[in-house]
Amino acid sequence: MANDDPASTDKTSLSEVFDVLTHGSRQRILLELVDHNPRTAAEFEAEEFAGGEGNHDTLKIELHHAHLPALADAGFINWDSQTGTITRGPRFGEIEPLLTLIDDHQEELPTDWP
Ranges for the DUF7344 domain (predicted)? Predict the structure, then answer.
């Protein structure tokens, strides 16, 4: 029987971290949770948050049907789809050092970095 509880599995692999961070919206959500916990999904629906990427309705759909579920499935966030509340998940601590490093060195990242 498989154990689907992300909190009870082994540490997050580097490949899993990079897979989750492949999209800029996911990176921005996680970076926001480093300093501001909890958040609401509505905060991430604003066009300013998306960095001017694409259509607002499309971004909202992607947020609710792809990005938030992917982060929740990985255990990095807890997302209550009814209230829209987003908090740090049981595995957030495993990626927090990387997120802090990214945040602290943003000026050294490529200009097209999400």
Answer: 50-87
Contacts of 6 (CB under 8 A, 6+ apart): 73, 74, 75, 89, 90, 91
Rounded-to-integer distance, Cα 77 and Cα 95, Å: 11
Which residue bears the tokens 């916990």? 37
Q: What is the pLDDT of residues 60-97, one digit of tens each?
A: 888 889 999 999 999 999 999 999 899 999 999 999 99
- What lies within 8 Å, CB to CB, of 105 at 6+ separation is none
Q: Catalogue the E-assigned strands of the chain.
A: 39-40, 77-80, 85-88
Is residue 18 very low, low, confident or very high in pLDDT (cuts 50, 70, 90)?
A: confident
What span, in angstroms and rounded, lies between the C-alpha atoms of 41 and 46? 9
Amino acid letter for position 7: A
Closest CA to 87 of 45, 28, 47, 29: 29
List beta partners, residue 107: none
pLDDT at 88: 96
